[in-house]
Specification:
Length: 240
Amino acid sequence: MSRAALIAPSLLAADFTRIGDEIRKAEAGGADWLHLDVMDGHFVPNISFGIPVVEAARKSTKLFLDTHLMIEDPVHIAPAFAKAGCDLITFHVEALVPRAQRTKREKGWALDRELTAEAVAKGRETIDVIRAAGKKVGISLNPDTPAVALRELGGLVDLILVMTVWPGFGGQKMIEDVVPKVREIRDRFPAPWVEVDGGVAPGTIAKCAGAGANVFVAGTAVFREPDAAAAVNALRSAAK
Ligand code: DX5
Ligand code: ZN
């Protein structure tokens, strides 16, 4: 089934001295969504921005705010992000599992098996909290976490975000070994949006689209280009 490609510029790559202008530039350039990367310095080795910036983004645009929480304990803070104006809130499956049960890779967390009953319960609770706040919900997995980690939860969400880089920083090269997992997830879960995030550019987007992704996060490939409209168009046509 073919689905329209949605282009979601990531604010992380914008010029933070003029955030409102940058957001309006993405909107005027034809972006479908705005992707907001929230980092806590614990789940990932970087801190980006939080609720006040989301509120400012909400005041600057009517774009759908696609919020990617790279944080520990998302269940506690998710309602505050909903209140700040997010339309969709994505949390990480790795964050549902106690640190001692995760695998620590050099560049971040991975799971090497399916979820325990406790982790599934925590995931359901997080999904329920986000839905109760009236928002759409997404679940994300890091490059080394297998699709089986989503077995119980993947069918309950609106979006599955497949990280194609280790999260924490923009401007990285796509890890193309992750692309087969995009296909596996699309085959297992036909209903949700499947979003890819990290290193998405005109030269890498087609293979993700071919594997079944239909939402494409692009930081560098939009905000670091001189013409945002041309950059969004280039991504959209390469995804066809
Ligand atoms: C990484 C973030 C990404 C990042 C993508 O932690 O989740 O959204 O901003 O940036 P690019 O498109 O530059 O790889
Ligand atoms: Zn992201």
